Amino acid sequence: SPLSANAYNRTPLSPLSLSPLSPLSANACKRVPFTIRPQPPRFVAQTEQDVLLVRIFNNRMGGFFVDLAANDPVFISNSWTIEQWFGWNGVCIEANPVYIPALRRVRHCQVVHALVDS
To answer: Which domain of life is it from (predicted)?
Structure first.
């Protein structure tokens, strides 16, 4: 199942440390009404692989990924969080034709319908 809010809250990541603000965007944030609060990234991978990626790459904005056996575009996705919240781009490779239409509709990355084999 997706990572629960409680599991996310147990991680040492701080929402403020997730993306450095430029002076321009910091000034823009000051004008946001107090009722709107920044949201922390939503982690969805099955066993917190997305949390690990964010930690390994130190909250890096913009990168490139290759997601083998991409499966569902969001549920238990290892790459959805870094694509949606951190601006990464990449390739999702999936062999099961059932998932291809949803991947192409929901994801911004290149979707390849193929089987990867050794």
So the answer is: Eukaryota
For the beta carbon of residue 74, count every other beta carbon within 10 angstroms: 16
Do residues 65 and 79 make contact, with C-beta atoms less than 8 angstroms apart?
A: yes
**Bridge partner residues of 85 (DSSP):** none
- Structural contact between residues 109 and 91, judged by C-beta atoms closer than 8 angstroms: yes
Can you read off the two tokens belonging to residue 55?
A: 């930690």
Read off the pTM: 0.66
Q: Categorise residue 62: left if φ over 0, alpha if ψ from -120 to 50, beta otherwise.
A: left
